[in-house]
Specification:
Length: 201
């Protein structure tokens, strides 16, 4: 007996998109829903679009107008424009829809936010805390295993950046690999999580 697949559920940001663990949890939750839970299909962005967000192509998001340069893309955007999404500190969910050349499509979630939007005097303390605890949080919230070599030590610095590769369950019965590219500096947070595709168990 087979049952029809349940439709993907709309992404819900449970927390304020603040420059702390609340915002990071929103990003990790969005990545799980958009990139890991379901295969990327042309209808997936419409099913997932968060309340208050809109769907635009990559051309509209980057340049403010449709020029046909990225037809097989869908961006879930709070404002409809990259600059204003970044200025507002809103997560951006980016899909490349399946094509003959890229049958599985592609998916990523990015988030940039300035400390001063939430913590006028917390830059040095927060950047170290977020950088040092990032791997533990990715592992916990995405039930993921780190594949790349972890940082051995953390010394106090003005900026911290890291590119890590992970593996976790995806699409109910498979394993997927993803990268986390993160930078924390005196200005704020810059995190992109990108799906790299399925891997053998």
């Amino acid at each position: 007996m087979t049952f029809p697949a349940a439709p993907a559920e709309r992404i819900v940001f449970k927390y304020e998109n603040a420059a702390d663990l609340r915002g990071l949890v929103n990003v990790l939750t969005a990545f799980r829903a958009a990139c890991l839970a379901e295969p990327v299909t042309s209808g997936l962005p419409t099913q997932l679009v968060p309340d208050g967000y809109r769907i635009v192509t990559r051309a509209v998001h980057m340049w403010g107008k449709e020029d046909g340069s990225f037809p097989d893309t869908a961006i879930l955007s709070k404002t409809g424009e990259e600059d204003s999404d970044v200025a507002g500190g809103y997560p951006i969910i980016d899909f490349t829809l399946p094509t003959a050349k890229l049958p599985d499509g592609a998916c990523s979630v990015s988030w940039k936010r300035r400390w001063r939007q939430d913590y006028p005097d917390g830059a040095s303390r927060l950047s170290l805390d977020m950088a040092a605890s990032l791997s533990a949080r990715v592992s916990y919230y995405l039930d993921a295993t780190l594949l790349s070599k972890p940082n051995d030590t953390f010394a106090v610095a003005d900026s911290y950046s890291d590119l890590t590769t992970w593996r976790t369950e995806c699409k109910a019965t498979r394993l997927c690999r993803f990268d986390v590219n993160a930078r924390f500096d005196q200005q704020g947070i810059d995190v992109t999580i990108m799906l790299r595709g399925e891997v053998e168990k």
